[in-house]
Write a structure and sequence with these properties.
Elements (H helix, E strand, L loop, with lengths): L34 H38 L2 H9 L3 H15 L4 H17 L9 H13 L5 H14 L6 H17 L3 H21 L4 H14 L4 H19 L8 H12 L8 H21 L9 H14 L5 H18 L9 H13 L3 H16 L9 H14 L2 H19 L9 H12 L6 H17 L9 H13 L5 H17 L9 H12 L5 H18 L9 H14 L4 H16 L5 H10 L2 H9 L3
Length: 635
C-alpha cells in the first residue's frame, strides 16, 4: 500500500537520502576473477617488467651491430659515390624520403633543407638550383604531415616557385588538392569544409584551363566533396563525375578517363550520410544506383576502367547499414548485395570477394533492426569460412561486439543468455592467444545492456559483476577496459528493470561511487543526465512494504535534487516525467502528492522542459481537477 506522510513538502529539503538506506544489506562479496581478467592483468603488468630487464641488453647489442657495420664500410669509397651525384637529385631523394616518412616535423625539415640548398646556390656553391620536383616533394610533405594549415603552406610555396620562375605542373596542383583533402578530413566546422571545397573546385577549373588536369585531379576533388559531409556533397561529387565522363567522351583523352576510384568516391559520398539522418535510406538507394551504373558501363565495354570491386559494393552495403534504423528493409537489401557479391565471386570474379568489412556492415544492419539472430548467423558463417582456411574472414572484436549489440537492442531472456555466451566465447579465445577478439568497452557495455533487458533472475547482479571485472582490469593498467559512464548507466538501468526489492538502493550506491570517483578526478565515470534519470527510474519502479517504498522515495528525491545542483549535468524532460512517476507510485493520493506534482511541473516550466510527455504524466499523477487547474494555468 502507498504511504501517507503529512509533511511531504518538507522532504524536498531532506539531506542526502543515503542516510535512510540503512535498512538494506549490500553484499560486497566479489566473485573469483575469471581467467580472462587474470590474463589481462598479466599482460598489462608483465611486459613492463620484461621491458625493463631487456632494455640494457638490447641497447648493448645494437651498439655492437653499429660498430661492426662501421668497420665494414669504406668511408672513402662512400664519399666518392656521393660526390659523383647531382646535388639536386640527392636533394630531391632526401626530400621525397622526408615527405613519405610520416615524421611529425617532416614538412618543416624538408622546407628548411630546400632553403639551405637555395642559399648555397645563390652563394655560387651549387650550379643548379632546386627544381619543380624539389618543391613538389616539400608540398607533399605538408600533404602527408601533421602540420596544420597544409594548403596555406602549399599556396605559399607555389607563390615562391612563381617568383623564382619555376612553373607548377600537374603534380604540383594535384598535391595542393591533396593538402585540401587532408584538411577536409580534419575539419570540424562546416564553414571550413565549404571553404576547402570552394578552393578545390577553383583549382581544378584552373587546371582545366591550363590543360593539365588529369584523372587524379578529378578523383581528388570528388574525394574532397565525399569527405566534406556537406548536405549536397554527394550530388556535387556526381556532377564532377559526369563532367569528367563528358570530357573523356568528347576528347578521348586517356589522361582524364574515369576509373573505379572515380565512381567509388561518389558512392562513398552517398554512404557518408549521418546514420541518424532520416534521408539515409534514399541516400543508400542513390549509392546503389551508382554501382549499377558502373556495372552497365563496364559490361557494355564503354569503359573497362570502371569495373566495380569489393570497395564499391561494400560502400553500398555500409550505406544501407546506416539507414537500417529508419527502414528495416535496408538490412535485407544489404544482405542481397552480399549474396550478389558471393555469387559473382563463385563465378570467378576475384575482385568482388566479400571481406571482413563487408560482413561486419551487414551484421551491423541486422543488429540495428533488432534481427539479432540473422546477425549471429553471419558471424557463424564467418567462423565456418575461417575454419576452412579463409583467414580474411576471421571474426574480430568488432564482429562479435556488433552481434552482442544486436541482442542488447532486442532484449529478452534468450538474448541475454546468448550475449553472455558470446562474451565468454571471446574471453576464452583471447585466453587461448587470439588477440583479435579481445573484448573492449563496447563489448562489455552491450553485454551489460543485454542482461539488463533480459529479465533473468539476478540479471542486474550479473551485470554489476561484469562492471567490477572491468574495474579490476582497469586498475591493473588495462585502461582500454576500464568502465565509463555508459557502462555504469547500463548497470543502473539493469537494476531499474530488474526484480530486486533493493533496486533503488543498489542504483544509488553506483551513483554515489561515480560522484566520489569523479570528484577525485576520474571524469571517465562522471554521472550524466542519463545516470540521474536511471536512478530516479529505479526508485519509481520500486515495490515492497511501506519501509522499502519510503526509502525508494527518498532515493528518487535525492537524485532529483542533485541533478539540479551540478553545472555539468542538466535535467531533461524525462527527468520530470520520471520523478512525477515516483510521486504517482510511491506517494499516497491526496493534497500532499498534488502539491508536490505541481511544484515539480512548475520547475519543468522554468527550465522550458514542460513538453507533452510531462503534461501527460501530470494528468496521471494528480487528481483530475488539480491536473486540469495546473495545466490550464500554464498554457
Amino acid at each position: 500500500t502507498k504511504f501517507h506522510h503529512a509533511a511531504l513538502l518538507a522532504l524536498l529539503a531532506t539531506s542526502s537520502p543515503s542516510n535512510y538506506c540503512n535498512g538494506f544489506s549490500a553484499s560486497n562479496q566479489r566473485r573469483p576473477k575469471k581467467d580472462f581478467s587474470a590474463q589481462i592483468v598479466v599482460k598489462s603488468v608483465a611486459p613492463k617488467v620484461k621491458n625493463t630487464l631487456s632494455t640494457n641488453k638490447k641497447s648493448k647489442n645494437k651498439q655492437q651491430q653499429q660498430q661492426q657495420q662501421r668497420r665494414r664500410s669504406n668511408p672513402n669509397q662512400r664519399q666518392n659515390s656521393i660526390s659523383q651525384r647531382d646535388p639536386i637529385i640527392s636533394l630531391n631523394m632526401n626530400l621525397d624520403y622526408l615527405a613519405k616518412s610520416g615524421q611529425r616535423d617532416a614538412a618543416i625539415r624538408a622546407e628548411e633543407m630546400l632553403q639551405r640548398i637555395e642559399a648555397l646556390h645563390d652563394d655560387g656553391y651549387y650550379e643548379k638550383s632546386p627544381d619543380v620536383c624539389s618543391y613538389n616533394s616539400v608540398i607533399n610533405a605538408y600533404a602527408h604531415g601533421k602540420v596544420s594549415g597544409a594548403s596555406g603552406h602549399a599556396h605559399r610555396l607555389m607563390k615562391r616557385m612563381e617568383a623564382k620562375g619555376i612553373e607548377a605542373n600537374s603534380i604540383t596542383w594535384n598535391t595542393l588538392l591533396r593538402c585540401l583533402l587532408k584538411e577536409v578530413k580534419e575539419a570540424r566546422d562546416k564553414s571550413i569544409s565549404e571553404e576547402k571545397v570552394e578552393d578545390a573546385e577553383s583549382i581544378i577549373a584552373n587546371m582545366e584551363d591550363l590543360g593539365i588536369v588529369n584523372t587524379i585531379s578529378y578523383n581528388t576533388v570528388i574525394s574532397i566533396l565525399s569527405k566534406s559531409k556537406l548536405p549536397d556533397a554527394a550530388e556535387k561529387s556526381e556532377v564532377w563525375l559526369n563532367r569528367m565522363i563528358d570530357k573523356f567522351a568528347k576528347t578521348g583523352n586517356e589522361n582524364i578517363q574515369p576509373d573505379t576510384c572515380s565512381f567509388n568516391s561518389v558512392i562513398h559520398a552517398y554512404a557518408n550520410t549521418n546514420r541518424f539522418s532520416a534521408g539515409a535510406p534514399q541516400r543508400a538507394k542513390m549509392a546503389e544506383r551508382v554501382v549499377k551504373r558502373m556495372e552497365k558501363v563496364f559490361q557494355s565495354g564503354e569503359n573497362d576502367q570502371v569495373k566495380p570491386d569489393v570497395v564499391s559494393y561494400s560502400a553500398v552495403i555500409n550505406a544501407y547499414a546506416k539507414a537500417a534504423e529508419f527502414d528495416k528493409d535496408c538490412a535485407t537489401k544489404a544482405m542481397d548485395i552480399l549474396k550478389h557479391m558471393a555469387k559473382m565471386f563463385e563465378g570467378g570474379d576475384k575482385d568482388v570477394k566479400p571481406n571482413k568489412r563487408t560482413y561486419t556492415s551487414v551484421i551491423n544492419a541486422f543488429a540495428r533492426t533488432g534481427e539479432s539472430e540473422a546477425a549471429d548467423n553471419l558471424l557463424t558463417q564467418m567462423k565456418e569460412y575461417y575454419a576452412l582456411g579463409d583467414t580474411s574472414l576471421k571474426p574480430d572484436t568488432v564482429c562479435y561486439s556488433s552481434v552482442i549489440d544486436g541482442y542488447a537492442k532486442v532484449g529478452g531472456e534468450e538474448a541475454g543468455f546468448r550475449a553472455e555466451e558470446l562474451l565468454h566465447e571471446m574471453e576464452n579465445l583471447y585466453n587461448q592467444g587470439d588477440s583479435d577478439v579481445k573484448p573492449n568497452t563496447r563489448t562489455y557495455r552491450s553485454a551489460i545492456t543485454a542482461l539488463g533487458k533480459s529479465r533473468q533472475p539476478r540479471a542486474a547482479e550479473k551485470a554489476e559483476q561484469i562492471l567490477e571485472e572491468m574495474e579490476y582490469m582497469g586498475s591493473f593498467g588495462a585502461h582500454d577496459l576500464a568502465p565509463n559512464t555508459i557502462c555504469y548507466n547500463a548497470v543502473i538501468d539493469a537494476y531499474a528493470r530488474g526484480r530486486s526489492m533493493e533496486k533503488a538502493y543498489r542504483a544509488e550506491l553506483l551513483l554515489e561511487k561515480m560522484l566520489e570517483e569523479s570528484a577525485k578526478g576520474n571524469t571517465l565515470i562522471r554521472p550524466d543526465t542519463i545516470t540521474f534519470n536511471s536512478v530516479i527510474n529505479a526508485a519509481a519502479r520500486s515495490f515492497g512494504d511501506s519501509i522499502v517504498r519510503r526509502e525508494a522515495y527518498l532515493i528518487g528525491l535525492g537524485a532529483f535534487k542533485k541533478i539540479h545542483e551540478y553545472e555539468y549535468c542538466k535535467p531533461s524532460s524525462i527527468t520530470y516525467v520520471l520523478f512525477l512517476n515516483v510521486l504517482k507510485n510511491l506517494v499516497e493520493e491526496g493534497d500532499a502528492r498534488d502539491n508536490m506534482a505541481e511544484r515539480t511541473f512548475q520547475l519543468s516550466v522554468s527550465f522550458g522542459l514542460a513538453n507533452g510527455k510531462v503534461r501527460e504524466q501530470v494528468r496521471k499523477t494528480c487528481s483530475p481537477l488539480v491536473a486540469e487547474r495546473i495545466l490550464s494555468s500554464n498554457n
